[in-house]
Amino acid sequence: MFRKVPVNMPKRDELKRYLRQPIVDVPDTTGEYSNYAERNEKKMEKDMPLLGIFPEYIYQSKKYRNCDYAEEIKMAMDKKGMIREHLNKFRKEPLDKDWYPVSVFCEKCNTDATKVKEHNGYNVTYTCKCGHEDTFDIREKGIIKLLWRVDWPMRWYYEKVDFESGGKDHFAAGGSFDTCKDIVKFVYNYEPPSAARYEWIKIKGGQQFSSSAGVATTVSDVMEIYEPEIIRWLFAGSRPATEFSIAFDEEVIKLYEDFDHVERVYYGEDKVTDKEKKKQSRIYELSVVDKPRHRIPYQPSFRHLTNVVQMYDMNIDKAVAYYEKDLEDDFDKERLRLRAMCAKNWIEKYAPDNYKFKIQKNIPVDLVIDKKIKKIFSKLAVRLKEKTWSDKDLHGEFYVLCESEGVKHKDFFKAAYKILINKEQGPKLASFILMLGERAIELFREASR
Ligand SMILES: [Zn+2]
User: Fold this and answer.
1) pLDDT in tens, 38-47
2) What is the 129 CA–ligand 1 centroid distance (Å)?
3) Residue 127 CA to ligand 1 centre (angstroms)
4) Segment (H or E) for 146
5) Given this structure, which CATH class describes domain 371-448?
6) Is the entire prediction scored with pTM above 0.85?
C-alpha cells in the first residue's frame, strides 16, 4: 500500500492521488517503469545476476490479484478470534472484537480505507469511506490481502518455507517473527521455518537511508564503486548477526586492500596460519562470482588506479593501457577495466578532496618559487632521466637534494604539488612522479626556469 509520497519523485501532486492504493497501481512518474512497485523491483533484479545471484521471484501482488491465496485467507478469517487474542498479548491497545486480519481495496476508489463487516465462507462484506459497500467472493475477486503478521506465516505455509532470514527488527522479543511462529502453527498447522537474524548494514560516507524521503543506497550504488566479488566478500566475511559497514568514504581503499590480501592468502602468496588460511580460503570461495581461477587474478591497487584514471583525465582506455604490460590475459584485463571504472566513479562521486587532482598543463602563473627550490627541480629533472628509479630510491633522493640546497623538506613537497597539480598536497610524491614520467619532468623544467 502506498503510504507516503517520496520526495525524490517528480509530479508529487499526481502521486498524492494514489495514497492508500496498492503500490502496483501507482504510476512511475519518471516514466521509466510501468509502475512504482516495478521501479523499485526491477532496479534490484537487474543487478542480482551480476553478483552471481539468480533468485526466482514471487510477486505478491500478482498472487493476491489472481486469488491464489483464497483458501489461506479464509483459514485466517475463520480463526480471526484466536489470532486477535494472540496479537493482543503483545499490544498495549487491544484489537477490537470486530477486527479482521485482512484489508480490502475498495472496488470503487481503489484505496484500503475500508472496513470488513462480516464474512461467510468465502464471501466478504465491506464498507468504504467513499460510501461504497459490497459483498464479494474471495475466490473470484483478488481485492483482499492479509495483514503483515498473518501474511508472512501464510506464505511460509503456502510456499513450504523451511528457512527464513530477516533484519533484527523482525526478531525482537514479541516482534513479527515471534508472533508469526505461533500463528503459522495454529492457523495453518505448519512448523515455523528455521531462521537467521541479520544485523544492520551501515553505510559509511554514502547516501543515508531514509524511507520517508524515498532515498536509499541501492545495490547499483554499491556496484558502481565495488567489484561484485568484493560485495560478496563483505557479506561472506561477516557473521550474519554482526554489524558491518559498506564504505563510500576513503575506507573504500582499505576494503579493496583487505580483499586483495584475502585473495593472495587463497593463492598462497600471503602467508598466514593454517587455521586462518582455511577460514579465509572458504570466504574467498564464497566471494568469487563463478569459481576461483587456476591462478591469482591481476590485482591493480585501487589507490594507484584512482591516480592513474585522473592522470588520464578519467579516460578508462588510457588508464587500462597504462597497465598493459602487466596483464596476462583477457580475464586480467576485465578485472582491471572494472576496477578502473569503480575508481573513476569513486573519485567523481564520493572521494574526499585530497584524493582529487588534475595534472597541470603548465605551472600556475602566480606560483613563486624560491631560487634554491628551483635549483632542486632543475637537478631533479636531470636525475629522473638518468636511470629507472624505484619509489623508495626516488623518495630518498628528495631528501638528498633538499639537504644539498639547504631547503626544508616540507617546502619542497609543497612546491612539487603546486607545480604538478596546483594543490599543496596530493598522492605519495615519488610514485606519483614516476607514474607521470615525462609530464612531470616537463613541468619541473618549466619551474626551474
Ligand atoms: Zn471506496
Assistant:
1) 888 888 898 8
2) 6
3) 8
4) strand 144-146
5) mainly alpha
6) no
